[in-house]
Each structure stands twice: as C-alpha cells, then as structure tokens.
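Title: Comparing notes on inverse folding

I've been comparing how different people in this forum approach sequence design from structure. To keep things fair, I'm posting one structure and asking everyone to reply with a full sequence. Here's the target:
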C-alpha cells in the first residue's frame, strides 16, 4: 500500500479528531477520550509539531501518531524522554501496516531531532516488535496502576536508558 507520512497541519485537526475517535471506538482498554488528549497535548509545552504525523493514502488521512515530551524523574535528576500516545488508524485501514509505518517514521524523526528514548502504555504483543521492552527492566516506573507488561520503554540511541531510573512524569495534559 502506498502511503505518504508527513507532519500534521492545523487544517487536519478536525479530521484527525474523528479518525482517533473511530480508531478507538471498539477498543475495550480505551477510555474513548484519546481525541481529547491529543487536543490538550497540542496546546501544551510538551507538543512537538515535527512529531505529530499523519499517514495519507490517495490523498486521504488514514492514520495519525503523536510523540510528546516528558521526563523520567529520579530524585533531583530529570531525564528527557518522549511519550508515544496515541497511534491511530482508520478501522478500514487497520492491519495493513500503516500503524507500523507511522511508528517507524516517528522513531526516525525523534532520533533525528536528538531524542534518545520513548515510553508508552501499550499492548504487550504489539510494541516489542519495534524495540519496546517492559520499562521496569530499565528501572522506570509509571505514575498509575497498570500491568508491568504494558508499561514499556525503548532506546532510540543505544545505551540511552543505561543510567536512567525513576518515575515517568507525564505532562499535565494527560490527566486533565
């Protein structure tokens, strides 16, 4: 399938909101508010416009991904990282590799921008293929109660999490 991945534009926001709602509509583990989270994150200091990407097929936006800034806190130390949340694909295009393409493109762009790691809360059978491992293996914890297998982290640069320990500090927009 031929897709074009590019940064989102403000003119895309309304359609992206609908796309995200449709993508998560039947997800049992969703609060069905991911579209509102994306709206809040766009208005926050955590937003990185180069890491908000869409996938287009035949001129139609069929997928979206967002990486935002956060920190891993260890006492007085603050380690910069990114959060992957969410990745969304229109239901009729799911299972065609669009989500995978968006994740790889977002990783490449984040790496090029100098970011060294990403954390996420996600499906334990899906994200390891992209290099994600349980975050607790790095000594990283999350600020909410979730199964350890779903709290993951990955290094964009080899050894980036070698000396990083602590608790993920999400931007306030995640909790509003």
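Reply #1:
Here's my take.
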């Amino acid at each position: 399938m031929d897709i074009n991945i590019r940064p989102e534009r403000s003119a895309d926001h309304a359609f992206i909101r609908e796309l995200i709602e449709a993508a998560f509509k039947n997800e049992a583990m969703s609060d069905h508010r991911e579209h509102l989270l994306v709206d809040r994150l766009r208005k926050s200091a955590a937003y990185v416009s180069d890491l908000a990407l869409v996938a287009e097929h035949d001129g139609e936006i069929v997928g979206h991904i967002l990486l935002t800034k956060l920190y891993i806190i260890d006492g007085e130390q603050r380690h910069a990282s990114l959060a992957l949340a969410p990745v969304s694909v229109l239901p009729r295009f799911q299972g065609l590799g669009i989500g995978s393409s968006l994740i790889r493109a977002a990783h490449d762009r984040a790496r090029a921008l100098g970011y060294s790691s990403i954390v996420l809360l996600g499906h334990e059978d899906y994200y390891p293929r992209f290099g994600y491992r349980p975050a607790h293996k790095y000594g990283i914890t999350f600020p909410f109660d979730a199964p350890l297998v779903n709290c993951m982290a990955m290094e964009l640069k080899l050894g980036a999490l070698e000396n990083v320990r602590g608790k993920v500090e999400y931007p306030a927009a995640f909790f509003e």
